[in-house]
Predict the structure.
Amino acid sequence: MAVERSLILFKPDAVQRKLCGELLSRIERKGLKVVGLKLLQVTPELSKQHYAEHVTKKFYPLLEDFITSGPVVAVAVEGIEAVKVMRAMMGSTNGRDSAPGTIRGDFGCSRQMNLIHGSDSPEAAQRELGIYFKPEELISWATVLEDHITAADER
């Protein structure tokens, strides 16, 4: 099992609804490690870079309007299979379809205003982390709790 990093964005609706502390707490309680954290305003240019595969799609203008509508919190997380773990924690894209207990299932009712973004693969995570964080903004560190979060043969 590989230790991975993933980009997580608390989108403008999560920031406006003051859910960032709750979402960060869930990530930490799960056992993932925060290795980067910042508040920023996504510009149209940054949106186009992040969502490059969607720029030509019909829905992109609404996506850009939403992601640039207010501040976001960018979080770099690290852990065993961090991408998969975060995808499960987030729930389905549409909050109405998300299971209770997931972030979107507990707090979301929308497909577009769905509170949180998480990288969908380790490759996407590497690309996305490079968009939002400079290498020196990501901190490698060991937690004294590692022995209580995962078994040695899982690391």
